[in-house]
Amino acid sequence: MYHASIALGALDLSRMPVLTLPPERKDAAVGAFTAYHTSITKLKAEIVSHNTPRDVNLWTTFFLGLFELMHDMTGEGWVKHFLYGTSEMLQLRGPEAHVAGSGRSFFLTVRVFEICRALIYSEPTFLCQPEWMSLMAKIWKEDDNNHWHPKEPLFDLMITCSSISHRQVHSQAHYILLLALLELAAEGFVVRSALADWYANFQKWSADTGTPEYNHNSVLATIYFHGISIYLSGIYDYRTQFNKIPTPTISHAVVQNHVDEILRMTEISLKTANLAAVLFFFPLRVAGARVTTARETESICAMLGEISTRGFVVANAFTADLKSLWRQKGI
Fold first, then answer.
1. N or C: which end of the chain has fewer CB within 10 A?
2. Domain total of the chain
């Protein structure tokens, strides 16, 4: 973990204006990649010598993944570290290792990153398994410091949306196919209702506890609420097999309201909130798929550009992907 931390710091330093001479920047970059490879080598040796991954191994894979977000514009390096490193280690340790202590802290930190990975890259996540879904209830039962925030049940709903999205219907029999589609639609209606209930309860909780609108956890929760509301509709919007049955889609006007809020709150958050900029990739990508005006595309490009300047060059891949989509839509 020490070398992974050095790699992150050196890579960030190599891009800062404090280093004005090219040789200085080059030395910092070389130091970053040297530390990165040293960390990977030591991590491999550590994994071989221990049957159960230690906390330090988990944090190392997480930091190495962040390094990839800062270095690899495609995002593939981060996905590999997270999917085959962090996520695999979490599963090897099992949910009980993350109920309390340092394991709990790590799980709560990376949980949202795993959720966003699954949603952004349209891949399944182990978090939808019953034993991992029930982990959160155990965590908050053990929490004596009352760190709970309403964003946690919202994250559960995001996991459920990801699960619905990845369940494909392959039956050749028309009757069985229809039943399966109706079942998926019914699950979507349950989630849609739960999202509405969540938002009402969240507003009440905020008022009752006096939590300000721009509390960083509340900001993230609100932005993700708007993002997952659009995402849930998209599960059914983009699949023609659902055209003939009722589904929990939302109107263009409602989608636009969600888009407006994502853009407004994300822009403010990037300027004022102490949140990791990479957490905004999911809502910006979802909103970007639904924008209809050049002004909106410019706003999203500006925000992704800001995230890129903060070191996360993978933002450029999101920009390129969205620009290609917008050209197809004639925006």
1. C
2. 1
